[in-house]
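>> received
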Amino acid sequence: MDIKMITREDIPCWYELSWRSKKPAIILKVHRDFIASIKSVSEDAPIVKSLKEEFKFKRFIGSFEANFGFDNAFILVGEKENFVEFMIKIPKIKKWTNENCSNCKGSGKEIFVDSRRNCFNCEGTGKKHIVDWQPAYAISASFTVFTKLARFPKTETSARFPQLITVNTITGMDLHGGSLGGEYSIPFVKWLSSLFGNSITEMVNAMKIAYNRMLGLRKFHQFHFSASVDYEDGWLNVDCPGDACGLNPVHNAGYDMKRGFGYEFNCHNVDTSVQQITLLAGLAALNDKARKELS
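>> returned
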């Protein structure tokens, strides 16, 4: 079929994200008709070879009949109503060791600032921690391969409901190495407009759970999560911990919304795969809410 955009017309769903809060995970659902049109991703594909070399992944599987992606990042769990489902477990990135914290010497209290306060470095545990980025890189890189593949489907699926959100990601170790963007569909933006002036608690809670699982949620992080529709036309702004880190409509979105279209969104200062996965968890929860209320 000709290239179509969900910002301009309704297109039957070919994939979507869903959220699981207990044992936190993002669920990727991929329609069988879409899988049939692409079959699999070759391990020799340039993007696969580049990411595998940069991040030293052990393996890549490009078949949708097995665990997909780098180092089993997307776990095949089954099929429901013509959608093949993959579970992406939210990993623990910050890990505690049995060694004493070098900052507080194992006391758990600040030495040089205020001995009544918990040590900022070890959060009062008295233990040293390490940060293992590899599981987050594997998830991010697997999404980057999949979302490039799924950007413009070659055929329409038989799904009886439209695609609501599309996502595209990049993966890197440098500045903006966890960037993401995407599109919101026409019915989705119309639904967003009904939430004008409200905080989307489902999205905020999913981001907090995901971030807490990966890096631990300190008290000051509580105020760095937000998701709200700030204009009547469906203008969605999202924030998570970082330097003004979040998702916003692109510059021409206001014009599109006034014409009754969907619109594109992009990110600002999403520098790490942890921030990217946090925002993807929020989008998955948002898709769940929209799918339920629009049905």
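>> Residues 33 and 157 are 5 Å apart (CA to CA).
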